[in-house]
Design a protein that fits this description.
The chain is an all-alpha fold. Helices cover 53% and strands 0% of the residues. It is globular and about 65 Å long.
């Protein structure tokens, strides 16, 4: 398979350089867990799915942390755009219900709340913005759309009997990128304001040490030597193939975020300092498997959708005649 091995080496070197030049960067899950999530998602695809991706399993795993390298201060335009895509700090936007089906509608809602409270509650207002709320579900859905488009091109090339190698690689990269955001969502600390130490009132005395994030997702995961074989038996059968996928993503993030306090309780007794701690091991396996299942389900659904005739009856979200068009954003929220 030409170019795949070269691409893997290139990305591996890129990541090594990124770690060297940005020692203070927060890295989601760490290399090991992200790679396991991506690989096991592909390994658990059903036989009628996009099984061509299995040829690129190592590539998809080895490039799983590339989106984190887009968050360096040395590339400020990229960092500003990318940083929010890795979190979903639900406590910060509890006032928004329902969650808008548009990244820009969400940002506008945050800004309106900021304007409302900036004088009466400046401390809260300081974190009522897109950076401190996150945009993870939007990043996931946007990546999902790109994956469908890539798979559609691949199917067209197959039907025409033309070379599909490079289009396969495009799809593999989209899966890798989608896997990063989905993987971040599986780490409970990516779904709370308590991502880097407990914030605000703290009656139970949880740690305020920012290093808890790394203890959970990198140090402990490395210490237990997490491998694919340990996760695969915990990945359930394919689901989420019908219904509102955006709502499924939000539910997935809510479920993950519900384990935040469990992490702090485990940390109180130094569970993440003991590779043999069974509850800590169980939580990591559970969440990594949940991330792999979510990614596998989205990849399988994208493959099925890419084989369907694109719907032309849907309203154009950029058309001012769309009944839901918002001139403030220049678009209408997504219907599906």
């Amino acid at each position: 398979m030409p170019n795949v091995r070269t691409a893997v080496i290139f990305f591996g070197v890129s990541l090594a350089v990124a770690f060297a030049v940005a020692p203070g960067q927060a890295w989601a899950w760490g290399k090991r867990a992200h790679a396991v999530i991506n690989r096991t998602a592909i390994a658990s695809l059903p036989g009628d799915g996009p099984v061509f991706l299995r040829k690129y399993m190592d590539y998809i795993g080895d490039t799983s942390t590339v989106p984190d390298t887009w968050r360096s201060v040395s590339e400020p335009f990229s960092k500003i755009q990318e940083d929010p895509n890795h979190g979903w700090f639900r406590e910060q936007f509890a006032f928004i219900d329902p969650i808008p089906r548009s990244r820009y509608e969400f940002i506008l809602a945050l800004h309106r709340e900021y304007l409302r409270i900036k004088d009466t509650d400046p401390e809260t207002a300081q974190r009522t913005n897109v950076r401190w709320t996150g945009t993870l579900p939007y990043a996931a859905m946007e990546s999902y759309g790109r994956l469908i488009a890539g798979m559609r091109l691949l199917r067209k090339a197959e039907a025409e009997g033309t070379d599909t190698r490079f289009l396969e690689q495009v799809c593999a990269f989209h899966v890798s990128q989608l896997g990063h955001y989905v993987g971040d969502g599986a780490q409970p600390l990516h779904g709370s304001i308590h991502s880097d130490g407990w914030r605000g009132d703290n009656p139970k005395g949880y740690t305020r040490d920012k290093a808890i994030h790394g203890r959970v997702e990198s140090q402990f995961v490395d210490a237990i030597g997490l491998e694919d074989a340990r996760i695969l038996p915990h990945i359930p059968a394919v689901r989420r193939q019908r219904g509102d996928l955006f709502e499924s993503v939000l539910t997935y993030l809510d479920e993950s975020g519900s384990h935040v306090e469990t992490i702090y309780q485990l940390d109180q007794r130094n569970a993440f300092g003991n590779p043999q701690d069974e509850p800590a091991n169980a939580l990591i396996v559970q969440q990594v498997a949940a991330g792999a299942a979510m990614l596998r389900d989205m990849v399988q659904r994208a493959w099925v959708e890419s084989g369907q005739v694109p719907r032309e009856d849907l309203p154009n979200p950029l058309d001012p005649k769309n009944p839901a068009y918002n001139p403030e954003t220049g678009s209408a929220p997504a219907l599906r």
